[in-house]
Amino acid sequence: MPGVLPDGETVPVDGALPGTALRGVGARGFGVYLHVPFCASRCGYCDFNTYTAAELGGGVGRESYADTVLTELALAARVLADTPPPRVDTVFVGGGTPTLLPADDLARLLDGIDRTWGLAADAEVTTEANPESVTPGSLKTLRAAGYTRISLGMQSAAAGVLAVLDRTHRPGRAVEAAREARDAGFDHVNLDLIYGTPGERPEDFAASLEQVVAAGVDHVSAYALIVEDGTRLAARMRRGELPYPSDDVAADRYLAAEAALDAAGFSWYEVSNWARGGAARCRHNLLYWTGGDWWGLGPGAHSHVGGVRWWNVKHPTTYAQRLAAGHSPGLAREILTPAETHTEDVMLRLRLASGLPLDVLDDAGRAAAARALADGLLDPVAYPQGRAVLTLRGRLLADAVVRDLLP
Questions:
Q1: pLDDT tens digits, residue range 276-294?
Q2: What is the 3-state secondary structure (H, E, C) of the chain?
Q3: Start and end of every Radical SAM core domain (predicted)?
């Protein structure tokens, strides 16, 4: 039976959406997120909905996973049967480690999405991957199947930092994998970095940035380490084995990233993301950040269509059981109010280099924007043109600026 969370309402057994949500599906873009919950090992900092083989026990295995997801895709097609999206603009396969699935299964899943709703001629199709989970052969299979973009979890070039994070790939493997992806014909390649890990020295992060630039990728994501409750890393810090991350160190690392990437021809387009030109920007993430629609497939996946947001049950076994019974795997959902939509719009758009239109703010918000301008947190060129765009200093204080702009 469908479940309910305290802040959510029941998802109908058939997954049906309110009529108001179905009007204009895809008018602001339509994407598909596909969650693959499998990992070879668990990283100490990760709190994502992922499982190793030992943790799953007798649960859903990789062998049957593609068929299970295709069952949910068929349910999604029924829900949107009368109001299908005009096309699928972006697909993002995340996890977990999607490339633990056979490349042929990932190809079959993409083909299923195309058969269901149709991929746009210029669709962006991304898969995440760990550097050790791909080979030149698997990358060629994915590229031939229609994947256009790959995002590789590098995190650091320093062996000591990788060890603290419980990453299993050797230093240098991420750069090799990025080059293999380019050789396989991928149009766009991203490398992910994490900075501020305990024990990371300035020269460690500088070396990571140097390797990223040398790899020839066209996109870089760099995030400060966040210590999540319930993770192995959090437990180590509570026991005093490792120090907690420093905000000052994180700010220094961010400034180092901006300097190195800007010098190498990258431009920021979201606070934690840099690209070599507009074509290299992650369009799927931009869909999230600008209020588009997307359907999330897989255990724990979140979806948003027409102001309705819902999320699936987390455990792969429960997910498969729901679908086998002919039920939606949705656990709960919420219908966003205009105020909630406005809050999220401000929070997300202000993080973009394109900025936030000042006219979406109320009087108090515009007064706060004027103060942020005077404090050097907003761009003085964009402001008279009606947009709030963060300066470099503003990016360091983005969360505080958002809080001031909101009621």
A1: 999 999 999 999 999 999 9
A2: CCCCCCCCECCCCCCCCCHHHHCCCCCCCEEEEEEECECCCCCCCCCCCCECHHHHCCCCCHHHHHHHHHHHHHHHHHHCCCCCCCCEEEEEEEECCHHHCCHHHHHHHHHHHHHHHCEEEEEEEEEEECHHHCCHHHHHHHHHHCCCEEEEEEECCCHHHHHHCCCCCCCCHHHHHHHHHHHCCCCEEEEEEEECCCCCCHHHHHHHHHHHHHCCCCEEEEEECCCCCCCHHHHHHHCCCCCCCCHHHHHHHHHHHHHHHHHCCCEEEECCEEECCHHHCCHHHHHHHCCCEEEEECCCCEEEECCEEEEECCCHHHHHHHHHCCCCCEEEEEECCHHHHHHHHHHHHCCECCCEEHHHCCHHHHHHHHHHHHCCCECCCCHHHCEECECHHHHHCHHHHHHHHCC
A3: 24-267
